[in-house]
Amino acid sequence: MHRLRAAVGKVLDWFEDRTGFMGLVMPLARKKQVPVHKHSIWYYLGGMLVFLFMLQVATGILLLFYYRPSAEGAFESVQFLMAQVRFGWLIRSIHSWGANLMIFVVFLHMFSVLLLRAYRAPRELTWLSGVALFATCLGLGFTGYLLPWNELAYFATQVGTEIPGVVPVVGPVIRTMLRGGDEVTGATLTRFYALHVSVLPAIAFLLISFHVVMVQKHGMSVPPSVERQGSSRGSIPFFPNFLLRDFVGWLCAIMVLASMAAFFPAHLGEKADPFAPAPAGIKPEWYFMFMFQSLKYLPAEILGIEGELVGVLGFGLLGLVLLLVPFLDRPDDQGRHRKVWTWGVYGTLAFILFLTYLGYTEEVPSSQDEPPAEAVSAAPVSIDGRSAAFRALGLAIEEADS
Amino acid sequence: MSHDAPARENAAATEPNRRRFVDRLLGVTTFGMFGAILHPVLRYLYPPPASEASVNTVTLPVRASDIPANSGTIFKFGDRPGILVRTPGGDLRAFSARCTHLNCTVQYREDISQIWCACHNGLFDLNGGIAGGPPPAPLESFVVRLRGEEVVVTRS
Ligand code: HEM
Ligand code: FES
């Protein structure tokens, strides 16, 4: 045992003599101290995201061994993966649940940073790269959702890519760029595939590296409220104390994901069919629900401007304010921050939660022409998403056609 | 070679100018080079127009007498879906099945005899007009003609 350890040590020394890698990294890791106070728990979310990203990359690469990116083959390849490939269901379910968990944690992380005002100078660049990462994660979720080429994802993408199209001038160009044509087709799938497995992960990797180096350089921010009271509980070293605690969190995440995958494996649904009506209950992924739901409530026209455009501009403005928070929230002469920002953050959070809640609870939004809910659920939408009328005709028109 | 010295002095005096000039030249060239790289990449990413000529007329593979009253069905109109409706009164009508709101595919609702979009609950009447929900414009209507038992749909 003793000899083995000495031998390993020698090998490691041999490498260290030539690379000097540890000498470069360890001082950075050892320098950092993590403050201990009542809000310390939020410090774990960033590390959790690094882990979840690595997990997504690992499971995503495994999926690539079977996935076929074409309108003809995608659905069938995922079906094959789920039904035939040993543990295919596990890999796909972990990737799918992992994506959800990751985006959930991104939201938590971002709101905790907002409420603890960790974006204060000199951490503006950390914040900016964080907002960019948030957008990248949403992009990964949006593009990944289409990849199995099922009906729900098809129409969610149809709507999702139509939305930027309402912006005058640049909108239609962006829409065509996203879709790879005028419609959502196999060309869209190819594009989303390229974005999902190479462009966005590469961007995410670069942003995460920058983000983490900045955090390491500035150290953890202590919230103003704790600073004022004077942090009495001191701090713990990042390496190895904090990192080891991070690992515990990661183990918990694996456990949660494995149980979710086992008890609620990822759905596949019906294959997308551009010539079938949109099924009732089409929904975007939950993290887009609040925007989707807001668009539902906007009238067709507001003050002579198209309702969607107002919605898109509104969310665009919200995004811009989010990006600029560190520059807008300036402390006054006594170094105090204005309470408006805190209320604004809570207000936004309440808005998001409320609209998401509405999106999942109402069967079908009410309008005066709308029949009661029973009539709606009895609407001619069968499992295969085609109307009963269509089948009453008995002639699968598109089959005869294709 | 005594006349050489002033010339060299002169060169020294213009040196910053010349350097600035060379810097600018370099800057403009670099900029141009990036442009020359970026331009084809952007053009590459913008898809070429679809080669399929837009369709103006389709003959549906369905016999007119087989279509019951108060029903609707989706058909292919080129690369886009259309919807063929037999009204409760017995008229045959055809519209684009693309909801004018955000592009979902609409369907016929027998229970209310209207055209319905599931995405945001848009409703259209049997002339394609807006009957409720967020759609900003009526459905594009097509002309339906009968050639014996054949149903022929034409873009008006
Ligand atoms: C970093 C964050 C990532 C997120 C948030 C994400 C998200 C998603 C989502 C939501 C799906 C659809 C899952 C389903 O319904 O089955 C998906 C599928 C897929 N992802 Fe990712 N992904 C990420 C990274 C990656 C990476 C790095 C790769 C590969 C290099 C990858 C490869 C794939 C493939 C091939 C599929 C299609 C297979 C399937 O749907 O089952 N993903 N991803
Ligand atoms: S897409 Fe039809 S109502 Fe929104």
The tally of helices of chain A reads: 17
The CA-CA distance between the termini of chain B, in Å, is 90 Å
Strand content of chain A: under 5%
Distance between the termini of chain A: 70 Å
The major pleated sheet of chain A works out as: 2 strands, antiparallel
For this structure, the CATH topology of the largest domain in chain B is Rieske Iron-sulfur Protein
Strand order of the largest sheet of chain A: 1-2
Q: What would the principal axes of the Cα set say about the shape of chain A?
A: globular
Q: Extract low-pLDDT stretches of chain B.
A: none
Helix and strand composition category of chain B = alpha+beta
Given the helix and strand composition of chain A, which structural class is it? mainly alpha
Strand content of chain B: 25-35%
Helix/strand order of chain B:
HEEEEEEEEEE
Associated small molecules: protoporphyrin IX containing FE, FE2/S2 (inorganic) cluster
Largest contact between chains: A-B, 58 and 48 residues
The DSSP helix count of chain B reads 1
User: Which sequence of strands runs across the widest sheet of chain B?
Assistant: 1-10-9-4-3-2
What is the second-level CATH architecture of chain A?
Up-down Bundle
Oligomer: heterodimer
Overall residue-averaged pLDDT value of chain A: 86
Query: Percent range for helical residues of chain B?
Result: 25-40%
